[in-house]
Amino acid sequence: MRLRPIGTLCLVLAFCCRAAHADPTGGVSPARQCAGYQRLDLKTENGLCVGLVANRLGFARGVAVVGDDVWIADMGGWAKGHGRLLRIKQQGRGRVEEMLTHLDMPNALLTLPDGKLLLGSLGRVDEIDPQAARPGEVKLVPVLTGLPDKGRHPVPALAAAADGTLYVNIGSATDHCEGANNAAPDAHAACPETLETPPRASIVATRWDRLQASGTPAAKATVVARGLRNSMALALDGSSHLWAAVNARDFINLADPTLSDEKLPPDTLVRVTEGADYGWPQCYGMQLSSPEYKGYSCKTKSAPTLLLPAHAAPLGMIYLGAAHALGPYRNGLLIGYHGYRKTGHRIVWLPFGANGEIAGNLRDVVWNWEAAQSGKSKEKRAFSENGAPEKMGSPVALAQLADGNVLMTDDHNGTLLIIAATK
Q: For the chain, what is the domain count?
């Protein structure tokens, strides 16, 4: 058994190094604390703050809360066998325990309504009993096996409904159905990967409440929706409707130089309709034909619900209902933008009305990582040659604690942060 302490609070974005598990505040004054943790110099909406819970967590991706335990998936990078499953007790105030090692790209963690835990890794989804007392006792029970594990988007995202349905994202294998050496796709034929079983660029469903002895083969999963390039952020709203935040294509300017790579295409938010086809790779944005498929009638495809900023790269999303508010934030979606461009590295809020429909504009609630990268400080940091921190924060997964505060992983810095209400 190996136990790894959280160690020192040393975030590359800022702050001095101090022992986290012994004193999460690092001895700083109450004015510099956030929910009992060292407060970070990020801009937030009024009523919120951001604190550093733990660092040195590797390539931290998924996060889930089961009782007082926080579970984290350290993908270990984009290669097989380097992933870890971590646990931190006492709502993140304990020591980091390695519960499993040598995993293949563990990416998604999800707490089920029955208290069990799901782990989405390369090619599979497994159930875990979170009551395992010690590292090494955790067992992976197959839920869904044989998921596609090759290509550009090989890891799943997950969402579970109370009725027993498990939704799984299957990302596309390519950017826009290009061939070898970036050869243009056949504009007059269906994209071959969308004809696979299960199809790429889709969301499929199985049951988390009816486990088979060896899991359900992915080929037998129900296809819920198609034409969604990579729905890495999935969430169910208060009425159990599935929402997907979709990472759109790249390099659109290479196919048509008159199109701006900076502004196009927008990422999208979709209130998923069962059986719908949202048009990838032939379409982008609000039913526009991709330059490789000029003349294609995208009006035959389903339109997204809302356009997000181009290259925002949403990787995490949770619904906050009236009973699970984060301070003033209730009845809406909290979305993490992972992207490395100006549109990314922030958390945004989308309010819903009483009828469950969008009731306002997207607005930033946590931002300004770029200022930390360019600013100067006398405090001890990890600097590059030009004096700036090496890595900017990139939000991945979100999970809510019982007190309403929200945990967030950052895979660039290997950290676990808390977004907390201040009043």
A: 1
Q: Is the pLDDT of residue 258 over 60?
A: yes
User: For residues 365 and 363, what is the distance between their CA atoms, to the nearest angstrom?
Assistant: 6
Partners of 366 in beta bridges = 44, 347
Looking at residue 152, its pLDDT comes to 96
Type of residue numbered 410: D
The first and second tokens of residue 387, run together, are: 């004096």
What is the reported pTM?
0.89
Residue 214 has pLDDT above 90, yes or no: no
Q: Which residues contact 236 (CB under 8 A, 6 or more apart)?
A: 159, 160, 161, 242, 243, 319
3-state secondary structure 232-267: CEEEECCCCCEEEEECCCCCHHHHCCCCCCCCCCEE
- Which CATH number belongs to the domain containing residue 378 in this structure? 2.120.10.30
Q: Residue 131: what pLDDT?
A: 86
Count of alpha carbons within 13 Å of 267, Cβ hemisphere only? 24
Q: Is 403 exposed, middle or buried (0-12, 13-18, 19+ CB in 10 A)?
A: exposed
Distance CA(372)–CA(29), nearest Å, equals: 21
> What is the extent of the structural domain holding 416?
3-179+188-421
How many residues are there in the chain? 423
